[in-house]
Design goal:
The chain contains ten helices and eight strands. The termini are far apart. Helix 8 links the parallel strand 7 (186-190) and strand 8 (209-212). The chain has 265 residues and is of the alpha/beta class. An eight-stranded parallel beta sheet has the order 3-2-1-8-7-6-5-4.
Length: 265
């Protein structure tokens, strides 16, 4: 049985894998990685695309994936340092790609690349008013997440760890708290995922999806790694829906003997 679909901003998706498109060794590997992952949402950093000059067929690869897989394009404002800059870039992305979906990133710290909570909330509120479907990249802070919901966001993207660190889920307690306190909100773990086991753990906690990039694009074999992550995300979500066993403080016999006959030497 496959996991149930989900519907960010009313768009029904069967894959819970959101895949980044930066840093692949070649356009062909990127195309094969998207196919192997099963992802139905692919992200693209407009700022990086514009600064790179020619796109080397990059945009056509994305559009082909959208046609063949029914994939959704999710442009992002990666690299923006202020709400104003992010809002401007989001409008450029809508004009260029013809989508009102936007992954909102406003960097607040140059060392950790931690998002600026005030700038993110400010930009999210304005973009919502401008008709965007905003996917805000944020920390796992509950109050920040609540303010983003107040601004009109329907999806939140809390980090697992700093971008590109591959450390996995540094604070599972915070993610469990978000899930418990925001039971009806779509939560996508974004950033810090380094191994398929990290992605599976996030899904077992009840997260709705996982977004990652470097763990696939920088792998020795990106296409095989993309498939591994796709399988892990599906397994983790299926396990959550089936009901993951709760940890116990003491041993519990898997085969109870009380009330049954048994031999004594």
């Amino acid at each position: 049985m496959t996991p149930t679909p989900w519907a960010p901003y009313g768009v029904t998706l069967h894959s819970r894998f959101l895949l980044g498109t930066a840093g692949y060794p070649s356009p062909q590997v990127l195309a094969e990685g998207i196919a192997a992952s099963g992802a139905q949402v692919v992200t693209v950093g407009l700022k990086r695309t514009l600064s790179a000059g020619g796109d080397n067929g990059f945009i056509e690869i994305i559009r082909t994936a959208m046609r063949e897989r029914g994939a959704q394009l999710l442009p992002n404002t990666a690299g923006c340092r202020s709400a104003r800059e992010a809002i401007t870039l989001a409008h450029m992305a809508r004009e260029l790609y013809g989508t009102h979906w936007i992954k909102l990133e406003v960097v607040g710290d140059e060392h950790t690349l931690q998002p600026d909570p005030w700038g993110t909330v400010e930009a999210a509120a304005q973009l919502i008013r401008d008709g965007f479907a905003v996917f805000p990249y944020c920390t796992d802070d509950l109050v920040t997440c609540q303010r983003l919901l107040d601004a009109g966001c329907q999806v939140l993207m809390p980090w697992g760890a700093p971008i590109g660190s591959g450390q996995g889920l540094l604070n599972p307690f915070a993610l469990r708290t978000l899930r418990a306190r925001l039971p009806g909100v779509l939560l996508v773990v974004d950033a810090g995922i380094g191994a398929p086991s990290h992605a599976a753990q996030a899904m077992e906690l009840g997260m709705d999806a996982v977004l990652l990039n470097s763990a696939v694009s920088q792998a020795v074999e990106p296409v095989r790694m993309a498939r591994a992550f796709g399988l892990a995300i599906e397994a983790g979500r299926t396990a959550f829906e089936a009901g993951v066993m709760a940890p116990q403080d003491m041993a519990v016999a898997s085969t109870p003997v009380s009330g049954h006959p048994f031999l004594i030497d």
